[in-house]
What we know:
By secondary structure, the protein is of the alpha+beta class.
Amino acid sequence: MIRIRQVTGKEKEKAYALRYEVYVTQDNKFEADKFPSRQISNAFDEQKDTLILLAEVISEGRKPEPVGTISLYRYHRELGGLPIIDTIKDVYDLDRLLERRIYKSPLFSCGMLAVDKDYQRSAGLLMWLYKMLFELAGTQKLEDFIATINYRIQPMMEKIGLERLVPEKWYSDEIKNHLFLLYGEYAKIKHSLSSEPLPVYSKIFADSREIWIGRREDFIRQGEVGSDAFLLIEGTADVVVRTSDSTFRLATLYPGETFGETALFENKKRTATVTANSLTAAKVVRRTAYARHLNNREEALSLAKALIDRLEEMNRRVDSDFSFRSSVRQPLFPPAAIQSLPDKCFGPGDIVCLQGENGDEAYTILEGQFSIHVRNADEPMKKITTVTTGSTVGYLSVLMAKGRRTATVIAQTSGRVKRISRKHFFDLLEDADVRKNVIRELFGILGRMNRCLSADAGRERVFSNLKRLLHDYFQKARLQTYFDDIPPLTSLWIALELGIEEGLAADLLKQLLNKSIIESTESGYELTDPEKLLAYQFRTGFRPPRPAS
Protein backbone atom coordinates (compact mmCIF):
# COMPACT_ATOMS: atom_id res chain seq x y z
CA MET A 1 0.00 0.00 0.00
CA ILE A 2 1.24 3.51 -0.82
CA ARG A 3 0.32 6.46 1.40
CA ILE A 4 0.77 10.08 0.25
CA ARG A 5 0.80 12.87 2.83
CA GLN A 6 1.99 16.42 3.38
CA VAL A 7 5.10 16.71 5.53
CA THR A 8 5.99 19.69 7.71
CA GLY A 9 8.62 20.59 10.29
CA LYS A 10 11.27 17.95 10.93
CA GLU A 11 9.43 15.45 8.72
CA LYS A 12 10.46 17.48 5.67
CA GLU A 13 13.88 15.94 6.16
CA LYS A 14 12.48 12.63 4.92
CA ALA A 15 11.71 14.33 1.59
CA TYR A 16 15.15 16.02 1.53
CA ALA A 17 16.81 12.64 2.16
CA LEU A 18 14.80 10.99 -0.63
CA ARG A 19 15.87 13.75 -3.05
CA TYR A 20 19.50 12.95 -2.18
CA GLU A 21 18.94 9.23 -2.62
CA VAL A 22 17.35 9.68 -6.06
CA TYR A 23 19.38 12.59 -7.46
CA VAL A 24 22.81 11.60 -6.13
CA THR A 25 22.87 7.88 -5.32
CA GLN A 26 20.53 6.49 -7.99
CA ASP A 27 20.72 8.99 -10.88
CA ASN A 28 24.27 10.34 -10.32
CA LYS A 29 23.15 13.86 -11.20
CA PHE A 30 25.17 15.61 -8.50
CA GLU A 31 28.43 15.08 -6.65
CA ALA A 32 27.93 13.60 -3.18
CA ASP A 33 30.45 15.93 -1.54
CA LYS A 34 28.17 18.90 -2.27
CA PHE A 35 25.66 17.51 0.22
CA PRO A 36 27.50 16.35 3.36
CA SER A 37 24.20 16.11 5.27
CA ARG A 38 22.91 13.62 2.62
CA GLN A 39 19.89 15.88 2.15
CA ILE A 40 18.93 18.26 -0.68
CA SER A 41 16.88 21.37 0.10
CA ASN A 42 16.59 25.03 -0.85
CA ALA A 43 15.53 28.33 0.74
CA PHE A 44 11.97 27.98 -0.60
CA ASP A 45 11.47 24.69 1.25
CA GLU A 46 11.33 26.54 4.58
CA GLN A 47 8.64 29.03 3.53
CA LYS A 48 5.30 28.54 5.33
CA ASP A 49 3.34 28.47 2.05
CA THR A 50 5.47 25.69 0.50
CA LEU A 51 3.79 22.31 0.09
CA ILE A 52 5.93 19.18 0.25
CA LEU A 53 4.36 15.76 -0.30
CA LEU A 54 5.86 12.39 0.56
CA ALA A 55 4.75 9.02 -0.79
CA GLU A 56 5.56 6.04 1.40
CA VAL A 57 5.17 2.29 1.02
CA ILE A 58 3.34 0.94 4.06
CA SER A 59 4.06 -2.73 4.88
CA GLU A 60 2.96 -4.65 7.92
CA GLY A 61 5.71 -4.90 10.53
CA ARG A 62 8.04 -2.49 8.68
CA LYS A 63 8.79 1.23 8.87
CA PRO A 64 7.23 3.36 6.11
CA GLU A 65 9.61 3.55 3.14
CA PRO A 66 9.71 6.91 1.26
CA VAL A 67 9.45 6.32 -2.50
CA GLY A 68 8.31 9.66 -3.93
CA THR A 69 8.19 13.38 -3.20
CA ILE A 70 7.12 16.58 -4.96
CA SER A 71 6.92 20.24 -3.90
CA LEU A 72 4.89 23.35 -4.73
CA TYR A 73 6.47 26.80 -4.25
CA ARG A 74 4.94 30.28 -4.14
CA TYR A 75 6.58 33.23 -5.93
CA HIS A 76 8.78 35.21 -3.47
CA ARG A 77 10.51 38.25 -4.94
CA GLU A 78 12.88 38.51 -1.97
CA LEU A 79 14.14 34.99 -2.71
CA GLY A 80 14.62 35.68 -6.39
CA GLY A 81 11.15 34.66 -7.57
CA LEU A 82 10.93 30.87 -7.91
CA PRO A 83 13.39 27.98 -7.48
CA ILE A 84 13.42 27.27 -11.22
CA ILE A 85 14.51 30.78 -12.28
CA ASP A 86 18.15 29.76 -12.89
CA THR A 87 17.08 26.58 -14.69
CA ILE A 88 14.90 28.35 -17.26
CA LYS A 89 16.67 31.71 -17.65
CA ASP A 90 18.40 30.71 -20.89
CA VAL A 91 15.22 29.45 -22.58
CA TYR A 92 12.39 31.61 -21.21
CA ASP A 93 11.91 35.08 -19.77
CA LEU A 94 9.58 34.63 -16.80
CA ASP A 95 8.76 38.36 -16.77
CA ARG A 96 6.85 37.82 -20.03
CA LEU A 97 4.49 35.43 -18.28
CA LEU A 98 4.16 37.63 -15.19
CA GLU A 99 3.15 40.59 -17.35
CA ARG A 100 0.45 38.78 -19.31
CA ARG A 101 -1.07 36.70 -16.49
CA ILE A 102 -4.77 37.37 -15.89
CA TYR A 103 -4.55 36.34 -12.23
CA LYS A 104 -3.72 38.68 -9.35
CA SER A 105 -2.68 35.88 -6.99
CA PRO A 106 1.02 34.85 -6.79
CA LEU A 107 2.41 32.49 -9.39
CA PHE A 108 3.50 29.05 -8.16
CA SER A 109 5.94 26.48 -9.46
CA CYS A 110 5.98 22.76 -8.83
CA GLY A 111 9.12 20.70 -8.92
CA MET A 112 11.74 18.78 -6.94
CA LEU A 113 10.02 15.60 -8.07
CA ALA A 114 12.02 12.61 -6.87
CA VAL A 115 10.81 9.02 -7.29
CA ASP A 116 12.71 5.92 -6.23
CA LYS A 117 14.10 3.97 -9.21
CA ASP A 118 11.85 0.99 -8.45
CA TYR A 119 8.76 3.18 -8.84
CA GLN A 120 9.77 5.51 -11.68
CA ARG A 121 7.67 3.58 -14.17
CA SER A 122 4.59 3.78 -11.95
CA ALA A 123 2.44 6.37 -13.69
CA GLY A 124 -0.19 5.68 -11.02
CA LEU A 125 2.15 6.96 -8.28
CA LEU A 126 3.02 10.06 -10.33
CA MET A 127 -0.64 10.83 -11.05
CA TRP A 128 -1.60 10.54 -7.39
CA LEU A 129 1.30 12.74 -6.29
CA TYR A 130 0.14 15.46 -8.67
CA LYS A 131 -3.53 14.87 -7.84
CA MET A 132 -3.00 15.33 -4.11
CA LEU A 133 -0.61 18.25 -4.65
CA PHE A 134 -3.22 20.22 -6.56
CA GLU A 135 -6.03 19.31 -4.18
CA LEU A 136 -3.97 20.74 -1.30
CA ALA A 137 -2.90 23.68 -3.46
CA GLY A 138 -6.45 24.99 -3.39
CA THR A 139 -5.87 25.99 0.23
CA GLN A 140 -2.96 28.20 -0.90
CA LYS A 141 -5.19 30.16 -3.33
CA LEU A 142 -3.22 28.78 -6.25
CA GLU A 143 -4.70 29.72 -9.64
CA ASP A 144 -1.83 28.99 -12.03
CA PHE A 145 1.70 27.58 -11.98
CA ILE A 146 4.71 26.66 -14.08
CA ALA A 147 6.77 23.49 -13.94
CA THR A 148 9.96 22.06 -15.40
CA ILE A 149 9.00 18.53 -16.38
CA ASN A 150 11.21 15.55 -17.17
CA TYR A 151 10.74 14.74 -20.85
CA ARG A 152 9.66 11.18 -19.97
CA ILE A 153 6.51 12.32 -18.15
CA GLN A 154 5.79 15.33 -20.39
CA PRO A 155 3.07 13.46 -22.42
CA MET A 156 1.23 12.55 -19.21
CA MET A 157 1.35 16.14 -17.93
CA GLU A 158 0.07 17.54 -21.21
CA LYS A 159 -2.75 15.00 -21.08
CA ILE A 160 -4.04 16.56 -17.86
CA GLY A 161 -3.99 20.06 -19.32
CA LEU A 162 -0.53 21.59 -18.97
CA GLU A 163 0.70 23.59 -21.96
CA ARG A 164 4.21 24.28 -23.24
CA LEU A 165 5.81 27.66 -22.66
CA VAL A 166 8.85 26.57 -24.66
CA PRO A 167 8.08 24.59 -27.85
CA GLU A 168 10.83 21.98 -27.53
CA LYS A 169 12.71 20.23 -24.74
CA TRP A 170 16.16 21.44 -23.79
CA TYR A 171 19.04 19.96 -21.85
CA SER A 172 19.66 21.54 -18.45
CA ASP A 173 23.24 21.34 -17.19
CA GLU A 174 21.94 22.17 -13.72
CA ILE A 175 19.33 19.38 -13.61
CA LYS A 176 21.35 17.00 -15.85
CA ASN A 177 18.28 16.08 -17.86
CA HIS A 178 16.13 17.04 -20.84
CA LEU A 179 13.24 19.23 -19.69
CA PHE A 180 10.01 20.81 -20.86
CA LEU A 181 8.71 24.09 -19.40
CA LEU A 182 4.95 23.81 -18.91
CA TYR A 183 2.19 26.12 -17.68
CA GLY A 184 -1.11 25.10 -16.08
CA GLU A 185 -4.25 26.66 -14.63
CA TYR A 186 -5.48 25.21 -11.36
CA ALA A 187 -9.17 24.89 -12.29
CA LYS A 188 -8.41 23.05 -15.52
CA ILE A 189 -5.83 20.72 -13.98
CA LYS A 190 -7.98 19.89 -10.97
CA HIS A 191 -10.83 18.87 -13.29
CA SER A 192 -8.54 16.69 -15.38
CA LEU A 193 -7.17 14.92 -12.32
CA SER A 194 -10.59 14.13 -10.88
CA SER A 195 -10.53 10.61 -12.31
CA GLU A 196 -11.06 8.82 -9.00
CA PRO A 197 -13.30 5.77 -9.45
CA LEU A 198 -16.96 6.56 -8.97
CA PRO A 199 -18.75 4.83 -6.07
CA VAL A 200 -20.51 2.47 -8.45
CA TYR A 201 -17.19 1.21 -9.81
CA SER A 202 -15.88 0.79 -6.28
CA LYS A 203 -18.87 -1.42 -5.45
CA ILE A 204 -18.82 -3.42 -8.66
CA PHE A 205 -15.10 -4.16 -8.49
CA ALA A 206 -14.80 -4.37 -4.68
CA ASP A 207 -14.87 -8.17 -4.43
CA SER A 208 -13.36 -8.95 -7.83
CA ARG A 209 -9.99 -10.58 -8.36
CA GLU A 210 -6.83 -8.57 -9.01
CA ILE A 211 -4.42 -9.36 -11.84
CA TRP A 212 -0.94 -8.05 -12.70
CA ILE A 213 0.61 -8.08 -16.16
CA GLY A 214 4.01 -6.97 -17.45
CA ARG A 215 5.06 -4.25 -19.86
CA ARG A 216 3.76 -4.75 -23.43
CA GLU A 217 1.41 -7.52 -22.35
CA ASP A 218 -2.27 -7.23 -23.36
CA PHE A 219 -5.25 -7.14 -21.04
CA ILE A 220 -7.61 -7.60 -24.00
CA ARG A 221 -7.01 -8.01 -27.74
CA GLN A 222 -8.94 -6.52 -30.62
CA GLY A 223 -11.01 -9.14 -32.43
CA GLU A 224 -11.22 -11.58 -29.51
CA VAL A 225 -14.50 -12.32 -27.73
CA GLY A 226 -14.46 -11.64 -23.99
CA SER A 227 -16.75 -11.61 -20.97
CA ASP A 228 -14.69 -9.50 -18.52
CA ALA A 229 -14.36 -5.79 -17.74
CA PHE A 230 -11.39 -4.18 -15.97
CA LEU A 231 -10.68 -1.37 -13.52
CA LEU A 232 -7.08 -0.12 -13.67
CA ILE A 233 -5.60 0.29 -10.18
CA GLU A 234 -1.83 0.63 -10.80
CA GLY A 235 0.24 1.66 -13.82
CA THR A 236 -1.00 2.81 -17.22
CA ALA A 237 -2.21 1.10 -20.37
CA ASP A 238 -2.63 2.19 -23.99
CA VAL A 239 -5.86 1.68 -25.95
CA VAL A 240 -4.86 0.76 -29.51
CA VAL A 241 -6.94 0.12 -32.64
CA ARG A 242 -5.41 -1.73 -35.56
CA THR A 243 -6.71 -1.57 -39.13
CA SER A 244 -5.48 -3.48 -42.17
CA ASP A 245 -2.84 -0.86 -42.90
CA SER A 246 -2.19 1.15 -39.74
CA THR A 247 -2.27 1.28 -35.94
CA PHE A 248 -3.70 4.14 -33.85
CA ARG A 249 -3.31 4.82 -30.14
CA LEU A 250 -6.68 6.17 -28.99
CA ALA A 251 -5.89 6.94 -25.38
CA THR A 252 -3.79 6.18 -22.33
CA LEU A 253 -5.68 4.80 -19.34
CA TYR A 254 -4.76 5.72 -15.76
CA PRO A 255 -5.71 4.25 -12.35
CA GLY A 256 -9.44 4.64 -11.77
CA GLU A 257 -10.44 4.16 -15.42
CA THR A 258 -12.35 1.15 -16.74
CA PHE A 259 -12.29 -0.69 -20.05
CA GLY A 260 -13.81 -3.72 -21.76
CA GLU A 261 -17.33 -3.10 -20.44
CA THR A 262 -19.10 -3.92 -23.74
CA ALA A 263 -18.23 -7.60 -23.25
CA LEU A 264 -20.40 -7.64 -20.14
CA PHE A 265 -23.55 -7.50 -22.28
CA GLU A 266 -23.00 -9.66 -25.32
CA ASN A 267 -20.53 -11.95 -27.05
CA LYS A 268 -19.09 -9.39 -29.44
CA LYS A 269 -15.49 -9.06 -30.54
CA ARG A 270 -13.31 -6.54 -28.72
CA THR A 271 -13.01 -3.30 -30.71
CA ALA A 272 -9.55 -2.37 -29.37
CA THR A 273 -6.42 -3.79 -27.74
CA VAL A 274 -5.38 -2.58 -24.27
CA THR A 275 -1.65 -2.97 -23.58
CA ALA A 276 0.23 -2.32 -20.33
CA ASN A 277 2.99 0.31 -20.42
CA SER A 278 4.72 -1.08 -17.33
CA LEU A 279 4.00 -3.58 -14.56
CA THR A 280 0.27 -2.88 -14.29
CA ALA A 281 -2.59 -4.06 -12.06
CA ALA A 282 -6.33 -4.21 -12.66
CA LYS A 283 -9.47 -5.54 -11.01
CA VAL A 284 -11.52 -7.92 -13.16
CA VAL A 285 -15.29 -8.40 -13.07
CA ARG A 286 -17.15 -11.09 -15.01
CA ARG A 287 -20.44 -10.76 -16.86
CA THR A 288 -22.45 -12.75 -14.30
CA ALA A 289 -21.28 -10.61 -11.37
CA TYR A 290 -21.91 -7.41 -13.33
CA ALA A 291 -25.48 -8.42 -14.13
CA ARG A 292 -26.27 -8.61 -10.41
CA HIS A 293 -25.28 -4.97 -9.99
CA LEU A 294 -27.45 -3.88 -12.91
CA ASN A 295 -30.44 -5.38 -11.16
CA ASN A 296 -29.89 -2.73 -8.46
CA ARG A 297 -31.58 0.49 -9.68
CA GLU A 298 -29.29 2.94 -7.85
CA GLU A 299 -26.10 1.22 -8.99
CA ALA A 300 -27.36 1.01 -12.58
CA LEU A 301 -28.20 4.74 -12.63
CA SER A 302 -24.81 5.58 -11.14
CA LEU A 303 -23.17 3.52 -13.87
CA ALA A 304 -25.24 5.30 -16.53
CA LYS A 305 -24.12 8.68 -15.14
CA ALA A 306 -20.48 7.53 -15.12
CA LEU A 307 -20.77 6.45 -18.75
CA ILE A 308 -22.33 9.76 -19.75
CA ASP A 309 -19.45 11.63 -18.06
CA ARG A 310 -17.05 9.48 -20.05
CA LEU A 311 -18.99 10.10 -23.27
CA GLU A 312 -18.93 13.86 -22.70
CA GLU A 313 -15.15 13.74 -22.19
CA MET A 314 -14.67 11.67 -25.35
CA ASN A 315 -17.03 13.93 -27.29
CA ARG A 316 -14.68 16.87 -26.68
CA ARG A 317 -11.96 14.90 -28.49
CA VAL A 318 -14.03 13.58 -31.42
CA ASP A 319 -13.92 15.33 -34.79
CA SER A 320 -16.98 17.23 -36.01
CA ASP A 321 -17.97 14.36 -38.33
CA PHE A 322 -19.20 12.41 -35.30
CA SER A 323 -22.37 13.14 -33.38
CA PHE A 324 -22.75 12.42 -29.69
CA ARG A 325 -26.24 11.52 -30.83
CA SER A 326 -28.53 9.84 -28.34
CA SER A 327 -30.56 7.91 -30.91
CA VAL A 328 -31.62 4.34 -30.24
CA ARG A 329 -32.45 2.33 -33.35
CA GLN A 330 -33.90 -0.62 -31.42
CA PRO A 331 -36.87 -0.27 -29.04
CA LEU A 332 -35.65 1.04 -25.70
CA PHE A 333 -38.95 0.53 -23.88
CA PRO A 334 -41.67 -2.14 -24.15
CA PRO A 335 -44.51 -0.65 -26.26
CA ALA A 336 -47.02 -1.26 -23.48
CA ALA A 337 -44.91 0.75 -21.01
CA ILE A 338 -45.22 3.98 -23.03
CA GLN A 339 -48.67 3.46 -24.53
CA SER A 340 -50.39 5.86 -22.12
CA LEU A 341 -47.84 8.68 -22.60
CA PRO A 342 -48.83 11.72 -24.71
CA ASP A 343 -48.23 11.83 -28.47
CA LYS A 344 -46.90 14.76 -30.47
CA CYS A 345 -47.18 15.24 -34.24
CA PHE A 346 -44.64 16.98 -36.50
CA GLY A 347 -44.76 18.17 -40.10
CA PRO A 348 -41.84 18.10 -42.57
CA GLY A 349 -39.17 20.57 -41.44
CA ASP A 350 -40.43 20.88 -37.86
CA ILE A 351 -37.74 20.90 -35.17
CA VAL A 352 -38.17 18.25 -32.50
CA CYS A 353 -35.28 19.43 -30.31
CA LEU A 354 -32.47 21.94 -30.77
CA GLN A 355 -28.77 21.44 -30.06
CA GLY A 356 -27.59 23.45 -27.04
CA GLU A 357 -31.00 23.78 -25.38
CA ASN A 358 -31.75 22.11 -22.06
CA GLY A 359 -33.61 18.86 -22.62
CA ASP A 360 -36.25 17.55 -20.25
CA GLU A 361 -37.93 14.91 -22.40
CA ALA A 362 -37.04 12.08 -24.76
CA TYR A 363 -39.00 10.93 -27.82
CA THR A 364 -39.77 7.46 -29.16
CA ILE A 365 -40.73 7.60 -32.86
CA LEU A 366 -44.04 5.97 -33.75
CA GLU A 367 -44.28 7.10 -37.38
CA GLY A 368 -42.17 9.02 -39.90
CA GLN A 369 -38.53 9.80 -40.58
CA PHE A 370 -36.38 12.24 -38.61
CA SER A 371 -32.87 13.50 -39.33
CA ILE A 372 -30.17 14.29 -36.77
CA HIS A 373 -27.93 17.32 -37.31
CA VAL A 374 -24.86 18.64 -35.48
CA ARG A 375 -23.26 22.08 -35.51
CA ASN A 376 -19.66 22.48 -34.33
CA ALA A 377 -18.24 25.92 -33.49
CA ASP A 378 -18.38 28.12 -36.61
CA GLU A 379 -19.16 25.28 -39.00
CA PRO A 380 -22.59 24.99 -40.70
CA MET A 381 -25.09 22.47 -39.37
CA LYS A 382 -24.39 19.00 -40.74
CA LYS A 383 -26.76 16.08 -41.20
CA ILE A 384 -25.42 12.99 -39.45
CA THR A 385 -28.05 10.28 -39.83
CA THR A 386 -31.74 9.47 -40.24
CA VAL A 387 -33.87 7.56 -37.71
CA THR A 388 -37.33 6.11 -38.00
CA THR A 389 -40.04 4.06 -36.25
CA GLY A 390 -38.91 2.48 -32.96
CA SER A 391 -35.92 4.79 -32.46
CA THR A 392 -35.59 6.88 -29.29
CA VAL A 393 -33.90 10.29 -29.40
CA GLY A 394 -32.96 12.82 -26.74
CA TYR A 395 -32.62 10.47 -23.80
CA LEU A 396 -29.05 11.41 -22.84
CA SER A 397 -30.03 14.96 -21.89
CA VAL A 398 -32.84 13.49 -19.78
CA LEU A 399 -30.38 11.32 -17.86
CA MET A 400 -28.23 14.36 -17.05
CA ALA A 401 -29.42 16.72 -14.32
CA LYS A 402 -29.13 19.81 -16.53
CA GLY A 403 -28.47 18.09 -19.80
CA ARG A 404 -28.04 20.11 -22.96
CA ARG A 405 -29.11 18.68 -26.29
CA THR A 406 -26.09 17.44 -28.21
CA ALA A 407 -27.84 17.44 -31.60
CA THR A 408 -30.79 18.94 -33.47
CA VAL A 409 -33.58 16.58 -34.59
CA ILE A 410 -35.74 17.63 -37.58
CA ALA A 411 -38.80 15.87 -39.05
CA GLN A 412 -38.15 14.83 -42.67
CA THR A 413 -41.72 13.62 -43.21
CA SER A 414 -44.94 13.92 -41.28
CA GLY A 415 -44.33 12.03 -38.06
CA ARG A 416 -45.61 11.15 -34.62
CA VAL A 417 -43.66 10.52 -31.41
CA LYS A 418 -44.25 9.56 -27.79
CA ARG A 419 -43.13 12.27 -25.37
CA ILE A 420 -41.27 10.83 -22.39
CA SER A 421 -40.70 13.36 -19.61
CA ARG A 422 -37.78 13.10 -17.20
CA LYS A 423 -40.12 11.81 -14.46
CA HIS A 424 -41.64 9.15 -16.73
CA PHE A 425 -38.20 8.17 -18.01
CA PHE A 426 -36.95 7.46 -14.49
CA ASP A 427 -40.17 5.62 -13.69
CA LEU A 428 -39.50 3.38 -16.71
CA LEU A 429 -36.01 2.68 -15.32
CA GLU A 430 -37.64 0.74 -12.49
CA ASP A 431 -37.73 -2.11 -15.02
CA ALA A 432 -34.40 -4.01 -14.97
CA ASP A 433 -34.62 -4.80 -18.71
CA VAL A 434 -35.02 -1.10 -19.54
CA ARG A 435 -31.97 -0.27 -17.40
CA LYS A 436 -29.93 -2.87 -19.24
CA ASN A 437 -31.12 -1.52 -22.62
CA VAL A 438 -30.10 2.02 -21.69
CA ILE A 439 -26.64 1.01 -20.48
CA ARG A 440 -26.14 -1.24 -23.52
CA GLU A 441 -26.89 1.74 -25.76
CA LEU A 442 -24.43 3.93 -23.86
CA PHE A 443 -21.73 1.34 -24.42
CA GLY A 444 -22.72 1.24 -28.10
CA ILE A 445 -22.09 4.97 -28.42
CA LEU A 446 -18.73 4.50 -26.68
CA GLY A 447 -17.80 1.90 -29.29
CA ARG A 448 -18.72 4.22 -32.16
CA MET A 449 -16.71 7.01 -30.56
CA ASN A 450 -13.68 4.73 -30.26
CA ARG A 451 -13.85 4.06 -34.00
CA CYS A 452 -14.16 7.78 -34.67
CA LEU A 453 -11.22 8.56 -32.43
CA SER A 454 -9.03 6.20 -34.44
CA ALA A 455 -9.76 8.33 -37.54
CA ASP A 456 -9.09 11.47 -35.50
CA ALA A 457 -5.74 10.03 -34.44
CA GLY A 458 -4.79 9.85 -38.13
CA ARG A 459 -5.76 13.48 -38.63
CA GLU A 460 -3.84 14.58 -35.54
CA ARG A 461 -0.80 12.72 -36.78
CA VAL A 462 -0.89 14.71 -40.04
CA PHE A 463 -1.36 17.98 -38.14
CA SER A 464 1.48 17.14 -35.76
CA ASN A 465 3.77 16.19 -38.64
CA LEU A 466 2.92 19.45 -40.45
CA LYS A 467 3.79 21.53 -37.38
CA ARG A 468 7.09 19.71 -37.00
CA LEU A 469 7.82 20.05 -40.74
CA LEU A 470 7.17 23.81 -40.67
CA HIS A 471 9.10 24.30 -37.44
CA ASP A 472 12.16 22.56 -38.92
CA TYR A 473 11.74 24.35 -42.26
CA PHE A 474 11.76 27.83 -40.73
CA GLN A 475 14.68 26.94 -38.47
CA LYS A 476 16.68 25.98 -41.55
CA ALA A 477 15.49 29.11 -43.35
CA ARG A 478 16.91 31.27 -40.56
CA LEU A 479 20.23 29.48 -40.99
CA GLN A 480 20.11 29.38 -44.79
CA THR A 481 23.81 30.33 -44.97
CA TYR A 482 24.52 26.78 -43.81
CA PHE A 483 21.80 25.08 -45.84
CA ASP A 484 21.82 25.42 -49.62
CA ASP A 485 19.12 22.85 -50.32
CA ILE A 486 16.05 24.57 -48.84
CA PRO A 487 13.14 24.11 -51.28
CA PRO A 488 10.43 26.77 -51.76
CA LEU A 489 7.62 26.38 -49.22
CA THR A 490 4.62 25.43 -51.38
CA SER A 491 1.48 23.37 -50.88
CA LEU A 492 2.85 20.83 -53.39
CA TRP A 493 6.08 20.40 -51.40
CA ILE A 494 4.11 19.97 -48.15
CA ALA A 495 1.79 17.45 -49.84
CA LEU A 496 4.72 15.37 -51.10
CA GLU A 497 6.48 15.50 -47.71
CA LEU A 498 3.39 14.43 -45.73
CA GLY A 499 1.71 12.17 -48.27
CA ILE A 500 -1.51 14.20 -48.40
CA GLU A 501 -3.46 15.89 -51.20
CA GLU A 502 -2.17 19.24 -52.44
CA GLY A 503 -5.60 20.83 -51.91
CA LEU A 504 -5.52 19.88 -48.23
CA ALA A 505 -1.98 21.24 -47.85
CA ALA A 506 -3.10 24.52 -49.43
CA ASP A 507 -6.06 24.72 -47.05
CA LEU A 508 -3.86 24.15 -43.99
CA LEU A 509 -1.41 26.84 -45.15
CA LYS A 510 -4.33 29.22 -45.70
CA GLN A 511 -5.52 28.65 -42.13
CA LEU A 512 -2.08 29.58 -40.79
CA LEU A 513 -2.04 32.70 -42.94
CA ASN A 514 -5.51 33.74 -41.79
CA LYS A 515 -4.43 33.37 -38.16
CA SER A 516 -1.24 35.39 -38.81
CA ILE A 517 0.89 32.46 -37.64
CA ILE A 518 2.79 32.71 -40.92
CA GLU A 519 2.85 35.61 -43.35
CA SER A 520 3.54 35.85 -47.04
CA THR A 521 6.65 37.78 -48.16
CA GLU A 522 8.37 38.45 -51.47
CA SER A 523 10.74 35.57 -50.86
CA GLY A 524 8.12 33.10 -49.61
CA TYR A 525 6.75 32.74 -46.09
CA GLU A 526 7.85 33.89 -42.64
CA LEU A 527 6.93 32.24 -39.33
CA THR A 528 5.63 35.00 -37.05
CA ASP A 529 4.74 33.04 -33.90
CA PRO A 530 6.35 29.59 -33.22
CA GLU A 531 4.38 29.10 -29.98
CA LYS A 532 1.10 29.81 -31.76
CA LEU A 533 1.99 27.30 -34.46
CA LEU A 534 2.47 24.51 -31.93
CA ALA A 535 -0.75 25.39 -30.10
CA TYR A 536 -2.95 25.92 -33.19
CA GLN A 537 -5.86 23.51 -33.72
CA PHE A 538 -6.41 22.92 -37.44
CA ARG A 539 -10.01 22.73 -38.63
CA THR A 540 -10.79 20.20 -41.33
CA GLY A 541 -12.82 17.05 -41.93
CA PHE A 542 -10.41 15.25 -44.26
CA ARG A 543 -9.78 11.53 -44.10
CA PRO A 544 -6.22 10.66 -43.03
CA PRO A 545 -4.02 9.10 -45.73
CA ARG A 546 -3.18 5.43 -45.62
CA PRO A 547 0.41 5.04 -44.50
CA ALA A 548 2.79 3.15 -46.75
CA SER A 549 3.21 -0.48 -45.85
